[in-house]
Amino acid sequence: MIKPKLWLASLLIAGVAVSCDSPQKSTRVTADEGDNRVTITDAEAEVYLDKIKLPENFKIEVWAADVPNARSLAKSDNGVIFVGNRQGDKVFALLDEDGDGKADYRYTLAEDLNMPNGVAFKNGDLYVAEVSRVLRFRDIENTLANPSFEVLFDQYPTDKHHGWKFIAFGPDDKLYIPVGAPCNICNPEKEIYASITRIDVDAENIEPEVFAHGVRNTVGFDWHPESEELWFTDNGRDMMGDDIPDCELNHAPQKGMHFGYPFWHAGDVKDPEFGSEGKGKEDYTKPKVNLGAHVAPLGMRFYTGDMFPSEFNNTIFLAKHGSWNRSKKVGYNVTTVSLNGTDQIDSHEVFAEGWLDDATQEVWGRPVDVLQLEDGSLLVSDDMANCIYRISYQN
Ligand SMILES: [Ca+2]
Ligand SMILES: [Ca+2]
Predict the structure, then answer these.
(1) Is pLDDT of 24 > 50?
(2) Which positions make up the signal peptide (predicted)?
């Protein structure tokens, strides 16, 4: 248990650190040893960081090794990092207790869960999305060593195909929860499939509301820091060859838009099976960026930190997990998309690469999600190398 006075003191220290604009704005959360805690300071990750190419003056390190199947990321107000699983069944919390820029402890918050890929933090509580359930861990920063959860909602579809979820709270304080298409390509009758829904976590009777339609499988989204409008990645359908259709980066400024699936892909690729069941391509919202076929874009966030050069302000960082069935592998990188204003695309380029060796086609890691730390550095999760990287900048 955390001693209440220490906790209060640590909050005050954190407050002072923020107001002084200290470069080392690290977490001050402390927690006792629990049966669910392991020390990871000295854990080794099987990584080849000398192969990673980054723009000048950027550096990549392992922030936390020994994080099995590290997937979606979320951060508490005081810097605890939460990590979901897709192939595993656990949710982890990572703590850099001494503030030296590397995680020290890993807590297992729950196990035996059903693809608990989605994590989000709000008002002291951690939310976890499994395939059909949303769980809530109350006051998680103070219960890392003895966590418990309640089932907030358990009525999402149980299909495992595209059933793992990315979740995040919007500027409207609603929790956004996608429901993937339960197939590679199909036209499900129920409106909730191939959508992004949102719920009010404080409602007495939670009822998902469909926010966006025609979304095959989004595993990453964020809201523009100025416009507060939703942007999301979407994974294109398979079995149309190596080069079509592209995966997508989309913009959903309001509720009720339809993004084409299963009728149209990547704006103007008519689906050979379902295209004739839909309307014309102009009746659906096209992607803002076609990201390449099979690249598997997952997590994405707008950069708002102070550490990177100012040209990165409000730039989208997105993780391309990489192709699984393309004859020549693509993706396996972290990409930036920069905007002119709040809705025009300026550029789309690779930021970090080297997890894939293009010549030998060998892969040693796969980026999944990105998350900015208080100091402006960027975490990247990797579900193949089972670790979390930190990318920092020093002029
Ligand atoms: Ca540390
Ligand atoms: Ca689309």
Answers:
(1) no
(2) 1-19
